[in-house]
Design a protein that fits this description.
The chain is built from two helices and five strands; from the N terminus they run E-H-H-E-E-E-E. By secondary structure, it is an alpha+beta fold. Strand 4 and strand 5 form a beta hairpin.
C-alpha cells in the first residue's frame, strides 16, 4: 500500500520590506513569525486562524493580514496557481 502523498508546499517569497521587518523584530517575535511562515503559510496559507487572520480591503484587496499580536502584523498574498505566498510586509501595524 502506497503512503499518502505529502501536502504540496507553497514557496515563500518575501519583499525587501518584509525581510527587513522580520530582521527588526525582537528575537522571540521573529522566531514566532518564522514558525508561522514555515508551518502555516508554506503548508496551507489560505486556512484562516480565527481572530488572527483577516481579508484586507481597498488598495490591499486580495491580501491577507495575520496579527502576530496586538503590535505586529504580516501582510501577504497567496497565488494559488503558482503555489507562492508573497510576504509584502512584516512589522508594526502600518499607518495607512
Amino acid at each position: 500500500m502506497a503512503s499518502p502523498a505529502p501536502d504540496p508546499q507553497y514557496k515563500i517569497q518575501a519583499s525587501r520590506v518584509a525581510r527587513k521587518g522580520l530582521a527588526d523584530l525582537p528575537p522571540r517575535k521573529r522566531e514566532a513569525v518564522k514558525r508561522f511562515i514555515q508551518h502555516q503559510l508554506a503548508a496551507n496559507p489560505l486556512q484562516r486562524v480565527p481572530g488572527k487572520t483577516k481579508q484586507l480591503k481597498g488598495a490591499y484587496k486580495g491580501f491577507l493580514q495575520y496579527d502576530v499580536d496586538d503590535n505586529y502584523r504580516i501582510i501577504y498574498f497567496v497565488d494559488k496557481t503558482k503555489m507562492v505566498v508573497y510576504l509584502d510586509y512584516i512589522g508594526p501595524h502600518p499607518k495607512w
